[in-house]
Automatic annotation (TrEMBL):
Name this protein carries in UniProt: Adenosylcobinamide kinase
GO biological process per UniProt: cobalamin biosynthetic process
EC number: 2.7.1.156, 2.7.7.62
Broad enzyme group: transferase
Taxonomic classification: Bacteria, Pseudomonadati, Pseudomonadota, Alphaproteobacteria, Sphingomonadales
The keyword Protein biosynthesis appears for this protein: no
Annotated keywords: ATP-binding, Cobalamin biosynthesis, GTP-binding, Kinase, Nucleotide-binding, Nucleotidyltransferase, Transferase
Species per Swiss-Prot/TrEMBL record: Alteriqipengyuania lutimaris
UniProt keyword annotation of Nucleus present: no
Highest taxon of source: Bacteria
InterPro entries: CobU/CobP, P-loop_NTPase
Sequence similarity: Belongs to the CobU/CobP family.
Catalytic activity of the protein: adenosylcob(III)inamide + ATP = adenosylcob(III)inamide phosphate + ADP + H(+); adenosylcob(III)inamide + GTP = adenosylcob(III)inamide phosphate + GDP + H(+); adenosylcob(III)inamide phosphate + GTP + H(+) = adenosylcob(III)inamide-GDP + diphosphate
Amino acid sequence: MLVLGGARSGKSHYAQQRTELIAGKLVFIGTAQPFDDEMQQRIERHRADRGDRWQTIEAPFDLIDAIRAADRQGDAILIDCLTLWLSNLMLAEMDVPGEELCATLAQCRHPVTIVSNEVGYGIVPENSLARRFRDQAGRLNQRVAQTADTVVLVAAGLPLFLKS
């Protein structure tokens, strides 16, 4: 399942609730990097909100290996978020392995829920890096949406099913 939405749309909360409906061990793959105190506090708050049922894997760069490990360790996987992973790769000037990501997702034995930001609703960014990010995020979301069985857009905390 791919869960899309804007900033503070409720997409992460929705994705977590849906994943928690699955019985068994849950694995959270986080892609955020705590560059400052506010982000560190946000990560810790989200970890506390998930509770003891969740195992956490931090994967700011190597998301594909993290997905493979999570598929061996748990019964359901939640990845939050694809666009943070993309920005990590772009800022490190690393290639974005979109095809390999989709192939890995397709091979998973357990349900995977992926959170990603929909960044294409705004104006055209004024700088080159922001435009490249917006374009790559849009293309990556399209690839993952083609692979996913279900795609949900969350706005104001409400899910709109785009593909099911």
